[in-house]
Amino acid sequence: MAPHAEESVGTHTGHEDVQQQQENERNMPKPGEYIQFDHLPAGGPLNRWSHFMTRDHDYPGAQASLFALYFSQNYRTEEPAMLYSAGVPNKDMMKNAAHVGIATVWWEGNPCKAVQKQNMLPWQFNTIGVSDGITMGSEGMRFSLQSREIIADSIETVTCAQRHDANISIPGCDKNMPGVIMAAARHNRPFVMIYGGTMRRGHSQLLDKPINISTCYEAVGSYRYGVLKASCKKQSGAEATASEVMDDIEEHACPGVGACGGMYTANTMATAIEAMGLCLPGSSSFPAESPQKRSECERAAEAIRICMEKDIRPRDLITRRSFMNALKLTMVLGGSTNAVLHFLAMANSADVDLTLEDIHRVSEATPFLADLAPSGKHYMEDLCNVGGTPAVLKYLIAVGLIDGGIPTVTGKTLAENVSSWPSLDPGQTIIRDITKPIKKSGHLRILYGNFAPGGAVAKITGLEGDFFTGRARVFNKEHELNSALSAGLIKDEEEGQVLIVRYEGPKGGPGMPEQLQASAAIMGAGLKKIALVTDGRYSGASHGFIVGHVVPEAAVGGPIALVEDGDLITIDAVKNSIDIIEASGIKGAAGIAAELERRRRGWKPPKMKPVRGVLAKYARLVGDASHGAVTDAGGPAW
């Protein structure tokens, strides 16, 4: 049996006693040892596990991703780099076909022609990847962040074990990129990253507007709260139902291959890594299916040879100066909160001194300039059309915001790399002039207070306001809040609510899952007087008044574990604070501290679940979010 097999869930049948006896005789994992996944009983449909992901509209982002994935993997042009996707064949297959994973464990000498042309021997090998779009809102999301460590570990393992002289890594999603950079810092052999590229935007016929993966989750909120309506009639002339609008969104949100198209975590990390000089100019903004991306793959072989001949190593490029560039570009573009977690982890691997305080200082001094999704209306393919990341870097170097003197994988400086690129289109509206920012300081705020003594990360673009005060409403797991939203139980209240999701940190999750399903549902439902706070993470597609990465996390007894329904919480993105200002009717710092201490005496740490498998191992090793949630922080192994 697979290590995640569990007792079946389903309706009572006449053969229940026989089935139970058979189950008792099987060698099954003990309850609670591994993550439990709902599945259909044996003897019926074969899609026993995937059914819970593809039924109805519970996980629309997963369905949208799967429509894209199926064809990208099964219908290819003659060139493997040019993948075209059209979707799972039909709705019946989506809902009823079983999903069979094909796990390949291999490395081989299948030649890469561009490297061969440089008179070098190419050796392809693989590592893993987890789709956040498919796993979002489910137990599968717990495996997402820890995949970063597996990616870093596996690339380090093969590169060192096989004594490779250099490495070209081709990541395509958010955790993958910091994973390959962490590996590069560890093996420290000449290295070039090729970003897999961004996805094209989708289009909904019934909503008559561009859509993307984030639309799926926001539409669920509208759907659950009865406010999802079509903007256009169907081709037949009939009015479309809300369910038909959901079908339309799911089928067209992801029209092809590539990473999610907004300034979500993948594009945040790709642009930041380009600003650090670790990939070729334009890598972060070329769409996955563009001719430029194929050309980049050819040029990467030339770049890796230059790095080898000039002995340009990853740690020569992963420096404090390059991290400052990455942080500044992230603030300018309105990037993901996950970037904070990943930058800290990358710095840890490269032995670069980088802290939350550094991120705070950069945010205070850097304007937010980009009208990009999720808070804006444009996508990465739009930015590519007006000059792409090189044009943005060229502008920011010219105004003195970005350090153009850092070295890069081309053997030239960053400024030299972008000097020959066209400047930003004068008529473009995506990147504002530095004198007319959307917000004068960065949108990523590092918060401290009696709620988060070790820090927290907020994403405040200014559209939500800079302050929020509301009564706490506590959920001990993400699924509790998702269930409340699905049932329409979360309403706007006059005083405002701070929805707290806890026991979802690196150890408590375990795995620090992203919570786009809840944040997007709240936006889609049109709820305004709500802030979200968690010791878990948010997706790069999340927006609204959101605070994540609360440290210490609930699982280790942080103040977030002690908060009760009705406590008054205030969040100040100007003073960069998050505090409990009233607890059980008690006010004042001394009184609140005493009340929290009283609650602590009655608090008991939860039993860790699961207790075996990769997540249990991760929970035992992982550090806190304020230091990157890494598993190799240094020090002796015993």
From TrEMBL:
SUPFAM superfamilies to which the protein is assigned, alphabetical: IlvD/EDD N-terminal domain-like, LeuD/IlvD-like
All residue ranges annotated as the Dihydroxy-acid/6-phosphogluconate dehydratase C-terminal domain in the record: 430-629
InterPro entries hit by this protein: DHAD_IlvD/Edd, Dihydro-acid_dehy_C, DiOHA_6PGluconate_deHydtase_CS, ILV_EDD_C, ILV_EDD_N, IlvD/EDD_N
Keyword Lyase: yes
Alphabetized Pfam families for the sequence: ILV_EDD_C (PF24877), ILVD_EDD_N (PF00920)
Key words of the record: Lyase
UniProt key word Lyase: yes
Ranges for region Disordered: 1-34
Compositional bias segments (type: Basic and acidic residues): 1-28
Positions of the Dihydroxy-acid/6-phosphogluconate dehydratase N-terminal domain: 109-417
Classification via PANTHER family: DIHYDROXY-ACID DEHYDRATASE, DIHYDROXY-ACID DEHYDRATASE DAD
Entry similarity comment: Belongs to the IlvD/Edd family.
Protein name: Dihydroxy-acid dehydratase
